[in-house]
Amino acid sequence: MSLKTKDYHYPLPEELIASRPLAERSASRMLVIHRETGVIEHRKFADFENFLKPEDLLVLNNTRVIPARLFSDDSRTELLCLDQLSPTLWRCLAKPGKRMKTGRSVVVGGITGNVLEVFENGDRLIEWESPLDLHRHGHLALPHYMGRGDEEMDKERYQTVFSKEEGAIAAPTAGLHFTPEMLSRIRHDFITLHVGVGTFRPVSVDHIKDHVMHSEKFSVTGETAEKINRAGRVIAVGTTVTRVLESLAGERQRIASETDQSGATDIFIHPPYQFKAIDALLTNFHLPESTLIMLVSAFATRELTLEAYRQAVAEKYRFYSYGDCMLIL
Description:
Elements: E1 29-33, E2 40-44, E3 57-61, E4 63-65, E5 69-71, E6 78-86, E7 89-95, E8 105-108, E9 111-118, E10 124-128, H1 134-137, H2 154-157, E11 165-168, H3 180-183, E12 188-193, E13 216-220, H4 222-230, E14 234-237, H5 239-248, E15 261-265, E16 280-284, H6 291-300, H7 302-314, E17 325-328
Parallel strand pairs: 1-17, 3-12, 3-14, 4-11, 14-16
Antiparallel strand pairs: 1-2, 5-6, 6-7, 7-10, 8-9, 9-10, 12-13, 13-15, 16-17
């Protein structure tokens, strides 16, 4: 077990970062880790169903990415809309920050916004004269490692085929591989967690226990919770689903199902951690020294995770949001 951030590093050639999706969603490769034996397989995502059992339940995140990136009408300011507090009130990131001090204004799509407050972490509270039309003026905030702005095809491909509830800044990327046809053959259900900008923020401390985890909003219906409790195995599609279910699981490994639940989670899963809610995990490959690779390392052990990443690099897998995936059993 290691609590040092540097121990979750791995080398990655830049050419393995996927900046665009494959032509077919389900054409990705899939690395498979068998935790009990330590065996690592190199398969295709098309083989995913072969690893499922009849009593399994696939749990997916049905959040929908909003075009949260805005540019001012004079092109001098960039905003990232993080959280809508009312029809006209948004918490935002601003760049350059020095232009967006308390009392300053910015115009987007002819609508003026005024900075009411600058928070300690640098976020801005901006009140707009009328509601912003993000779908008209906004852009998808693609991860920085893609090295490009959003394009027309991203409007479809940076959403899962089951996306429904608007509010995410980033896509729950493990779900991007699924097609409606595949899901029609698999027992599944949905939770909602709106992926925030914290997903992209690196761990900047030397010891991971000193890292302050970001918080993200979620909701789970009582009906879904009951299905999860009755499942033979719970297969989490993505780290977002994992964080929600582990946040809600009690000592008896059950999730309260009497009522619908909503709230926010800032759970930081890293070694050592005893998982209570999930039995298997489908996830994409994650950034070095990120909270996400730490979560995966808690599930599969750090040594096995880093060996899998080493093999993925050697086999030239495609990495990150539009990249290939990993199934951990």
